[in-house]
Amino acid sequence: NLFDNLSETKDKNEEKLEIHNLMRVPIAMLGYPPGSLKILEAGASVAEEVDNKKLLARFYNNISILHTSRGDSLLSIANSEKSFQEARHIEDIEMMAPVALSLCYAYVSTCQYDKLIDISLAITGLIEKTGKESEFFKTPFNLYAFILALCGMGIRGDFKRGLQISDKGLQHAIKMGHATTLAFAELQQASLLALKGEGKMAIPHCPNSIKHSEDTEWPTILSQAWTVLAYAN
Fold it and tell me: Could you tell me if 206 and 225 are in contact, meaning their C-beta atoms sit under 8 angstroms apart?
């Protein structure tokens, strides 16, 4: 192994880190072939040694994607959490935001609502602190509005607080005028109101979600909006 022949000095470790980092993109482009995990874990180890939190976060993110591609959701979540925490140490919002979105979905799918709430409020708080509420962070949504809407649905034991957070996301989505984000935010508000037993208040949000879902050709949200409308009636 080429790396085994390099001495353990700071300069050599930096060189190792650079080589491992350069390998991340082709590994991902090749669909994480056999041997990828060993390379990425070695890169993470070196990044930790030299205290490069930014690259450490990136290695953990790649390891998470690798486990996702192999169908291991628990290992994927564990490494996404590591990636988020490392990025959080240095408040790297560009790295944290898309990782947070992936984690939010993972927590919803595994019913870890406490973790959903914690990470949602952490990332939206940092977005506010950095003044990036209008950013999309290379995702299909306005991330600030989207995560607030998702967070509101996660707070099911306190409808008042959940509705406040969800509505905050919806109002920002309306301000942005972004159809895909609006389709989701309107649905989340309608769903939360329907669960609370406020069917009459939920109903007006459903046609809005339906319209935006049709406009953006988003069948998943479209079907859910029709379902919530039927439930609310």
Answer: yes
Neighbours of 137 (CB within 10 A): 20
Q: What radius of gyration do the chain's Cα atoms show? A: 20
pLDDT tens for 52-82 read 988 998 899 889 888 888 888 889 899 989 9
User: Would the CA dihedral through 214, 150, 162, 73 be positive or negative?
Assistant: positive
In whole angstroms, give the CA distance from residue 186 to residue 193: 11
Nearest 5°: CA angle at 219, between 147 and 182? 35
Q: What pLDDT, on a 0 to 100 scale, did the predictor assign at position 207?
A: 97
Cβ(149)–Cβ(183) under 8 Å? no
pTM of the model: 0.78
d(C-alpha 182, C-alpha 171), whole Å: 9
- Cβ-Cβ contacts under 8 Å for 158 (sequence gap 6 or more): none
